[in-house]
Amino acid sequence: MRLAPRFTLAACALAYTRSVLGALYVINPTAQGVCVGGQPCHVQWLDDGQEPLLTTMGPCYVTLYAGNQRIVQRIEPVDVSTTHSLTFTPSPNAGPDSDTYYIAFASIKSSNSSQPLQAFSTYFSSVHFSMPLTFAC
């Protein structure tokens, strides 16, 4: 009987998370991918066909993060409904070599309640950074 409350809590958390996250599915970089500081890094995504569609997400802020939501670098916004890739150059001064970098997309105009529609890449590696992790906004 003790499992029921935990299961209910987990199901509610999953339902809430799914309602806030967009249907944007990042296919590059992958968990085995590496972006090199000072060199172009290619980011590519698909629409997974589930609501909300990329047409609902529309223009998005794009940010490079490390670890637990530490902003490393802001990337030029992109309309994910009309473009399915972008290339940016990670700043070589943005942080240390690590395998905990990820890309976040946050819809500029669309939200679910008070939260913007969001999507995230998997963690990937970034190497050849020349400085400790800093906020490079």
TrEMBL record:
<keyword id="KW-0732">Signal</keyword>
<dbReference type="GO" id="GO:0006078">
    <property type="term" value="P:(1-&gt;6)-beta-D-glucan biosynthetic process"/>
</dbReference>
<feature type="signal peptide">
    <location>
        <begin position="1"/>
        <end position="22"/>
    </location>
</feature>
<dbReference type="InterPro" id="IPR045328">
    <property type="entry name" value="Kre9/Knh1"/>
</dbReference>
<dbReference type="Pfam" id="PF10342">
    <property type="entry name" value="Kre9_KNH"/>
</dbReference>
<feature type="domain" description="Yeast cell wall synthesis Kre9/Knh1-like N-terminal">
    <location>
        <begin position="29"/>
        <end position="124"/>
    </location>
</feature>
<dbReference type="InterPro" id="IPR018466">
    <property type="entry name" value="Kre9/Knh1-like_N"/>
</dbReference>
<dbReference type="GO" id="GO:0042546">
    <property type="term" value="P:cell wall biogenesis"/>
</dbReference>
<protein>
    <recommendedName>
        <fullName>Yeast cell wall synthesis Kre9/Knh1-like N-terminal domain-containing protein</fullName>
    </recommendedName>
</protein>
